[in-house]
Amino acid sequence: MSAQEQPAWPDAVIARYLTLSGEVFRDPSIYVEVLRNDEQHAFYRCHCCSRQTLPEFTGVTQDQAQAHAEKCRALPRPGVAS
Ligand SMILES: [Zn+2]
């Protein structure tokens, strides 16, 4: 399977974490992304299972996003980009 390009980063995106599924399929477009809500808060959204959190302190959200990415086995619907 060939490596795919990671989708562009919108300004609000702080970080992205490759999910377990993304690692298995070697697909950088399968990730959890952390989005800025305001100066100190952010929320995350998983592009595989559609889980989205309410805004928390940015550091907390990044830890949660990474923890989710490490165990999320959901697969994105084929043909739906980001
Ligand atoms: Zn997920």
Protein model, in words:
- There is one protein chain.
- With 82 residues, the protein is α+β, with helices and mostly antiparallel strands.
- The chain is built from 2 helices and 4 strands; from the N terminus they run βαβββα.
- The chain has helices at 20-25, 58-71; strands at residues 13-18, 31-36, 41-46, 56-57.
- A 4-stranded antiparallel beta sheet has the order 1-2-3-4.
- A hairpin with a 4-residue loop joins strand 2 and strand 3.
- The two termini are 19 Å apart.
- The model has no long low-confidence stretch (mean pLDDT 90).
- The site of zinc ion has 7 residues, from loops.
Helix/strand layout:
Blueprint: E1 13-18, H1 20-25, E2 31-36, E3 41-46, E4 56-57, H2 58-71
Antiparallel strand pairs: 1-2, 2-3, 3-4
Zinc ion (ZN) is lined by residues 46, 48-49, 51, 68, 72, 74.
Quick recap of the structure?
With 82 residues, the chain is an alpha+beta fold. Helices cover 24% and strands 24% of the residues. The protein has one domain (13-71).
- Cα radius of gyration in angstroms: 12 Å
Tally of strands: 4
Percent in helix: 10-25%
Number of domains: 1
Identify the overall geometry: globular
Bound ligands, named by name, code or SMILES: zinc ion
Average predicted local confidence, pLDDT: 90
N-to-C order of helices and strands? EHEEEH
How big a fraction of the residues is strand? 15-25%
User: Count of DSSP helices?
Assistant: 2
Terminal-residue CA separation: 19 Å
Spatial order of the strands forming the largest sheet: 1-2-3-4
**Coarse structural class:** alpha+beta
Quaternary status of these chains? single chain
Low-confidence stretches: none
> Describe the biggest sheet?
4 strands, antiparallel
